[in-house]
Amino acid sequence: MNLSFLHTKAFQHNLLAWFFIAAWINLPGLLYERFGLDSFLAFHGKNLLPFFIPLLIVSIILIFQLNHDSKQNLFQKFNVTELGAFLFIFYIILLEAYHSANSGIPFSWRVINPLIFFYFFYLFYLRYSFLAATSDLNEIIIRYSAYILFLILVVHLLGYAGIFPHYRGTGGEGTAEGVLAITTGGRIDVIQLNLSSYYASFLIAICLFYSKYTKLGIILKSLMLVSALFAIYWNQTRGAFIVVLALFILWITFNPRINFFFKAVMLVSIISIIGALAITFSGSRIFNLVDSSGLERIFMYIDGYYQIMLHPFFGLGEGFENTFRPGLFAPLLVHSFIMRYAIAYGIVSVTIFLLIFFFMHSRAKMKYRLVSFALLIGIGTFETYLFWWFSILPILAIHATKIDAQKN
Asked: How much is the pTM?
């Protein structure tokens, strides 16, 4: 058997890219949970090392080989954004240390860890792409992200159907109840439910804005789009629904193939249809903001806002934030990682984070910046934890901008 292809740079780049992006999007953690491998599970920002097992095995070997073959220095050409990310992490750690010493609450990495790895993946990718000296990696990251997101949604949806194990509602519901829920506009709460909805939002963004920059056939792209929309409907995640609505509005607004008149007609039609559906299906979870979950979130946000206003600039640290659990029916963490960061480290830290994210898009067109911020702000308003894959967005945006400029 001829295995010479294993030694080619193209194969090595693709292999490293696959494992790296899989870890970046957190495929290992989701599979650990889905198949009940609790000993490998590192959930909610704790003990993050298991997520990097696929990355560490492959990348450490290949990065040394690539660095050996290249005449470039791995640490050349650090830009202002990269330096700003390092300084920001250092600032957050010092702030947490101050709060810990001041309050007597033990130092906590719970909120800091996801932020560190959000930047870690981004900075590592920039260094690796610099050494590799090829633009193909950006096209690969779009394609592999789409493949991995699609795989996650397929596993999740087939778990609903009882084909994959480890599906069980938090109230003991099984597959039959899950299938019944889709016909009634209800929802069965399961682990990963909101996570898969936001992964679906990311996949929809790729299909709408970035799929033309990679090799995704029309059939596969359609399957990805349908599965993502189906997952969001079945999950009944309101935050993801709002994010996807914003993405479709941006797609219509910036689509050069649709003239102004039809854009206006389409936007008015979308608003009218959603309004009609909200009235007709007002009892379904996705349109009902005054059910127990909706009211819970509203009171969480109100209590969170008042807490932020008490200590607006530097917060009170993660130790306090983790014990700040308002709730109408039960004490819960505030379901918004943006508000959680503001409670822990103040509005100053949130502002710096958003500014760095903005400058990560410094060479991207406005259209793609808006797509990234629609995902970051939209998901960040409703999801409890920061996703590492948010730092993939500036890479996609800058690559698309570059290709658009070459075509023009």
From this structure: 0.86
